[in-house]
UniProtKB/TrEMBL annotation:
Monomer. The keyword Calcium does not apply. It comes from Daubentonia madagascariensis (Aye-aye). CDD domains: ADPGK_ADPPFK. This is ADP-dependent glucokinase. Catalyzes the phosphorylation of D-glucose to D-glucose 6-phosphate using ADP as the phosphate donor. GDP and CDP can replace ADP, but with reduced efficiency.
């Protein structure tokens, strides 16, 4: 909260968690929303009337009732009780003890065992044959932090096996989330990244990822204010160069959609994706409308806080860019990888920050054109 950084943690004490959840849930002003990254991404897709969504995950009665009619849940995914995630939202300038939040954000905690064990993964893969998707989105790997090391290791291998059972040619997007376990993060990088096509993450996850897998700028302990564009793009470049698709490596990873409060970057390996400009702009647009809960961007309620000038890299490949308001999406290239940068019109007094990353990723995927030579 002191840094205004988004975070999520596993709450290990079951009884205490359920007491808190019950009190919170029965509170007269309690608000129940669709939760879980996959469900939120599914909801965003389902808002398009011509899209059908298959959602596999532990779905209780309340969640089922909140889901869009275009979201189908296989019977095996239904359970008798809902899992709750508790969201603590705060506005910019709010104080708690000695701390004062520099900007609005949220802290999430849960005691969610079924998602943590990735219980529904096999049900999901077995449902795909009948559903015949054009895109698969996975999330929840961060929930495994509540599991024992042995179970994490075993389950991660099963996750990779399950992903490899998804028919060839269907792009697979993995949405990352807040983590603290470096070993688990490193295993995800080395085992899961090569099996997926696309990644979605924010600045906390990106920095933790490079620290866990000894990537560039891994000595940076935390971002100081707005994450430096050159540093971010160096890390994105490294992920795609070291763990992405190339002639000598069996990896499917060709796309990363990075989002932070004031700007987004879409990095893609050349030859696999198109329409990146529209995709990254759509993600920025939804960030401004959803946080303010408006249909379109309301200029009086948003502010432009992106850097007006930045370096694209700290290696010899770097160049200096000055933002042009008439063409706000900036494109640059580095060794067969394209970068599309967009500023974000940031909502000044957000109604809700939770699920923003999911909406950004969903919107970016919706506008992304995948080339069919997978």
């Amino acid at each position: 909260m002191g840094k205004g950084a988004a975070a999520e943690r596993f709450f290990s004490d079951k009884e205490t968690f359920h007491d808190i959840a019950q009190v919170a849930s029965e509170f007269p002003e309690a608000q129940h929303y669709v939760g879980g990254n996959a469900a939120l991404i599914g909801q965003k897709f389902a808002a398009n009337a011509d899209l059908k969504v298959l959602l596999c995950g532990p779905v209780g009665p309340k969640l089922h009732e909140l889901l869009d009619d275009n979201v189908f849940v296989p019977p095996e995914s239904l359970q008798e009780v809902d899992e709750f995630h508790l969201i603590l939202e705060y506005q910019a300038g709010e104080e708690w003890g000695q701390l004062k939040a520099p900007h609005a954000n949220r802290f999430i905690f849960s005691h969610d065992l079924s998602n943590g064990a990735m219980n529904m993964l096999e049900v999901f893969v077995s449902s795909l044959e009948e559903f015949q998707p054009d895109l698969v989105v996975l999330s929840g790997l961060h929930m495994m932090e509540g599991q024992s090391k042995e179970l994490q290791r075993k389950r991660l291998l099963e996750v990779v096996t399950a992903i490899s059972d998804i028919p060839t040619g269907i792009p697979v997007h993995l949405e990352l989330a807040s983590m603290t376990n470096r070993e688990l993060m490193s295993s995800i990088v080395h085992q899961v990244f090569p099996a997926v096509t696309s990644l979605g993450l924010n600045e906390q996850e990106l920095l933790f990822l490079t620290q866990s897998a000894s990537g560039p700028h891994s000595s940076v302990s935390s971002w100081n204010g707005v994450p430096d564009v050159g540093m971010v793009s160096d890390i994105l470049f490294w992920i795609l160069k070291e763990h992405g698709r190339s002639k000598g490596r069996a990896s499917d990873l060709t796309r990363i959609h990075f989002h932070t409060l004031v700007y987004h970057i879409l990095a893609t390996v050349d030859g696999y994706w198109a329409n990146q400009l529209a995709a990254v702009a759509a993600g920025a647009r939804v960030a401004g409308t959803q946080a303010c809960a408006t249909e379109t961007i309301d200029a009086s309620r948003v502010s432009l806080r992106a850097p007006q000038m930045f370096m694209t890299s700290y290696s010899e490949a770097g160049s200096r860019i000055v933002l042009n308001p008439n063409e706000p999406v900036v494109e640059w290239h580095r060794e067969g990888i394209s970068f599309h940068f967009t500023p974000v019109l940031v909502c000044k007094d957000p109604i809700r920050t939770v699920g923003l990353g999911d909406a950004i990723s969903a919107e970016g995927l919706f506008y992304s054109e995948v080339h069919p030579h997978y």
